[in-house]
Amino acid sequence: METSTSLFWKRYKEAPIVGIIRGQSLDTVLKIAQAYEEAGLTTLEITMNTPGAAAMISTLRSKFPLLNIGAGTVCKLDDLREAIDAGAQFIVTPIIDETVIEHAVDENIPIFPGAFSPSEIYKAWSLGASAVKLFPATQLGPQFIKDVLGPLDQVKLLPTGGVSKDNIKSFFQAGACGVGMGSSLIDKKLVSEEDFDGLKKHFESIKAEIVDFINT
Questions:
Q1: Which one from 45, 120, 204, 207 is the annotated catalytic residue?
Q2: Among 92, 121, 165, 186, which is most buried by a count of CB atoms within 10 Å?
Q3: pTM given for the model
Q4: Which residue out of 2, 38, 123, 133 is catalytically annotated?
C-alpha cells in the first residue's frame, strides 16, 4: 500500500518543479491550481507569509487531491505546526532551522531546507532533509551544483530563485533533482490579466523543457 510520502514522491517525479505561490488571493490561487493540474504539473507551495496561507493549503488539499500541496517560508516551529495542521504534504524553508527540520523528519513529512554554502548544504542533508533547497540559485548557477555534487554526490539539490524557462534545463543537466520556481513560473502578467489559458500553456512549455529528465 502506498504511503502519503511515497505518493508525494511519485507525483513529484512526474514533474519535478515546485511552483511557489506568494501573496495571491484564494480565488486566484484556485484558478492557478486548476491550470497547473491541467498542464501536468504536480507540486505547489503556498508561502506561509501569504495572508490566509493555512486556509489556502487546506482548501487546495480538498479541491485538488491529485496535487502535492505544501507550505513554504517556514522559518519556525509555529509555522511548521500551522502548516501541518492545515494538511501541508511537504515543507520548504529559506533557512536551516534544526528544530523545524527535525520535527518534519519525525512527522515523516518531506522537507526542503534552504542552504547556500557546501557546509550549509551538508548540514541540512545530515539533519534529514529530503532535498536541499539551493537558495538563491541565481547567485550560484548550474556549475555550482555540478561542483558541489562532486564530493557530495548523495545530496539532492533543489535550486530555487532565478530558475526560468531559459535556464531550467541547465540546472537538471548539472544534476538537480528538481527546481523551485516563483514569478518565472506563476507569471504575474498572465495572472493579473486573468489569462489562465495562457498560464496553462506557459506551464506546459516549461514542463516540456525538462521532459528528458522526468522519470516516469
A1: 45
A2: 92
A3: 0.96
A4: 133
Q: How far apart are CA 128 and CA 119, in angstroms?
A: 15
CA distance 158 to 114: 9
- DSSP state, residue 63: H
What's the Cα-to-Cα distance from 148 to each of 92, 107, 161, 194, rounded to whole Å? 21, 29, 18, 41
Q: Is 45 a catalytic residue?
A: yes
Mutual angle of helices 77-86 and 53-63, in 10-degree steps:
30
Q: Are 42 and 68 in contact (CB under 8 A)?
A: yes
Of the candidates 131, 202, 142, 137, the one whose C-alpha atom is nearest the C-alpha of residue 172 is 142
> What is the maximum span of the chain, computed from C-alpha positions, in angstroms?
46
Strand, coil or helix: 181: strand
Q: Mean pLDDT of successive 10-residue segments in the chain (216 residues)? A: 82 97 97 98 98 98 98 97 98 97 97 97 98 92 96 97 96 97 97 98 98 83
Say which residue the cell 508561502 belongs to: 47
Amino acid present at 196: F
